[in-house]
Here is the input.
Amino acid sequence: MNTPTKPVALIVGASRGLGLAMVAEYASRGWQVIATVRGEASTPLHDLAKHAHGLIEIERMEITDPKQITALRQRLSERHIDLLFVNAGVATRDTEVSALDVSDAEFIQVMTTNVLAPLRVLEAFESLVPNTGALGVMSSGLGSVADNEHGGWSIYRSSKAALNQLMRSFAAARAGDPRAMLLICPGWVRTDMGGSEADLSIDESIPCVVDTITNATGTPGLRYLDYRGHTVHW
Here is the structure.
């Protein structure tokens, strides 16, 4: 009798924080996880992989480098990916910097990393995801235009709103696609980016994020959901 094949997740941006926690959670649930890091340095992901009994594979990819996206796509060309999820993202050094004061270079870096690069990854790898699979990106509640009543984090917030818009265009161009497409808001989490005053620990957020992705898989079309599975206002 053939042994059932483990489901496979490709999680892009997993060296630390939320991406690392997603890798750990999926591996703990018996998934085979392909996880990406930038550069050659050892990371917490490498430490996690040492004790994962072969369930975690590490690949190198800088998502702002199209050549590296192409190279990884070629390396994985024969793989079947049940979940493609892009977690990578950055904020401005000063999260409250204004449009007047932010440099062109930093603005371009945030927009390239948070908006353009994730969609390039989805477009490059989507053919590896079957009709029963899911494609997702890590968005944010800050990306909601409707819920923006207090401002703050203006550049980061605008990048997530732009990501949401590009993801809507991605889904619209694939009308009738049976796969789940997801924009996930993890909540305000205590990470290097979220800061020590954030509402949630990683352990309070990420298992719920994975449950939400699992519950949404099998439902076609794009949804914008928080970590508890609730719809977020566009």
The first strand starts at residue 8 and ends at 12. Helices lie at 17-28, 44-50, 66-75, 104-125, 154-172, 202-216. The radius of gyration is 17 Å. The chain is about 35% helix and 15% strand.
